[in-house]
Structure formats: structure tokens, C-alpha cells
Amino acid sequence: MTKTALIAVDMQNSFLHPDGENFYPVAPEVIEPVRALIRAAEEGSAIIVHVCDRHREGFADFEQPRLPVHCISGGFNAEFFEGFGPQGRAREILITKRRYSAFFATELALFLNEQGVKRVVICGVKTNVCVRATATDAFANGFAVNVVGPAVNTNRPKLGEASLEDIDRYIGKVVDLETAKDLLA
């Protein structure tokens, strides 16, 4: 059996709450599919990785020339959306990132390798930015990559479609919800 980790990317108020600073109208469509994946991972044997984007108030951050200041630690936008983030489940961890990828300058690859994980299932927001960067770095770190099509989205539909096409062609597989649940069993 291949050991698997579910990586839930940026399920935070910033993107999912209507008052979030980076909210976009289709973002909430990922909520139920991601919840279903977390339940499947919890019922199965997969590790659950909750990824959050958090930045420090008042300090320079390389993302700022490309993006407005966002997800400031301790603020509403940086907090997980209701029901997401660590909940005291067995086999779940938190990874805080300051760049698009959950792997860049974090301990994620080290941790997953120490646990014997060979395959990742990725979900969350945004397909063409953080999900794609995480998938790319997962591949670069030697993991079999599976991105769950119905559990990712973006406010740039054409870029989201192109990102999923590239992921499926060059990085891993884009899978449906039922296939992803089976991988998490």
C-alpha cells in the first residue's frame, strides 16, 4: 500500500469568507469537496496536511511587489475558514508558508519523507497559483502528484484550466473526487 498525504491548501478566511480580502465568488465551491476529502483521509490512513498562507505585519515580504499585503498572522484573513485547519485529529499537521508552494522553505518534504509518504493528493485554492506551485514542488521532491479537479478553483478560469492541463500532462494526475477518496483510504 502506498502511503498518502492529503494537502489542503489555503482553506482560510482570506479566500473563502465573503468578507475575506482575497474572496472570489466561486471560491466557496471547494468547501464541500475539500471537507469530503478530509473526512476520507481521517477515515482512511492518510496524513492530513493543513497549509496556511501567513505573513508578518510590518516586515518586508518578497510577495508584496506582486501581491498586496495579505494574510497577516493573527488577523481574520489568516485564520482558517470555519471547520478547516487542525481539529485534533490523528495524523494531521499544520504547515505555514510565506510563498505560493507549501514545500518552499517549509519542512513539508522532510516531514512527508520521514513518514514514508510516496503520494500526495492536493486540494484547495487557487489552482493557478498556490495549488500549481505546491504540485510542481511535490513532483520535484519525488512524490506522485494527484490534484483533485472538483476540489480546486480560481478566479481566473482560463488559467485554472491551463494549470490543470499542465499538471495532468507534466506533473501528475488530475483526478475526480471519488478517485481521490480511494487514494486516501
Provide a short characterization of the protein structure.
The chain has 185 residues and is α/β, with parallel strands linked by helices.
Overview of the molecule:
Residues 4-178 form the Isochorismatase-like domain. Keywords: Hydrolase. InterPro entries: Isochorismatase-like_dom (IPR000868), Isochorismatase-like_hydrls (IPR050272), Isochorismatase-like_sf (IPR036380). The protein is α/β, with parallel strands linked by helices and 185 residues long. It has a domain at 4-11 and 24-51 and 92-184: Rossmann fold. Helix content is 33%, strand content 21%. Strands 3-2-1-4-5-6 form a 6-stranded parallel β-sheet, sandwiched between helices. β4 (119-125), α4 and β5 form a beta-alpha-beta unit. α2 packs parallel to α6 (177-184) and α4 packs parallel to α5 (157-171). It is globular, with a radius of gyration of 15 Å. The relative contact order is 0.21. The mean pLDDT is 97.
Termini Cα gap: 10 Å
Poorly predicted regions: none
Which sequence of strands runs across the widest sheet? Answer: 3-2-1-4-5-6
CATH class term of the domain at 4-11 and 24-51 and 92-184 = Alpha Beta
* Cα-atom radius of gyration: 15 Å
Helix-strand sequence? EHHEEHEHEHEH
Percent in helix = 25-40%
> In DSSP terms, counting alpha (H) and pi (I) runs of 4 or more, how many helices?
6
Structural class: alpha/beta
CATH architecture of the domain at 4-11 and 24-51 and 92-184: 3-Layer(aba) Sandwich
What is the β-strand count?
Answer: 6
Broad shape: globular
Determine the strand fraction and express it as a percent band: 15-25%
Mean pLDDT: 97
Most strands sheet: 6 strands, parallel
Q: Supply the CATH superfamily name of the domain at 4-11 and 24-51 and 92-184.
A: Isochorismatase-like
For this structure, the CATH topology of the domain at 4-11 and 24-51 and 92-184 is Rossmann fold
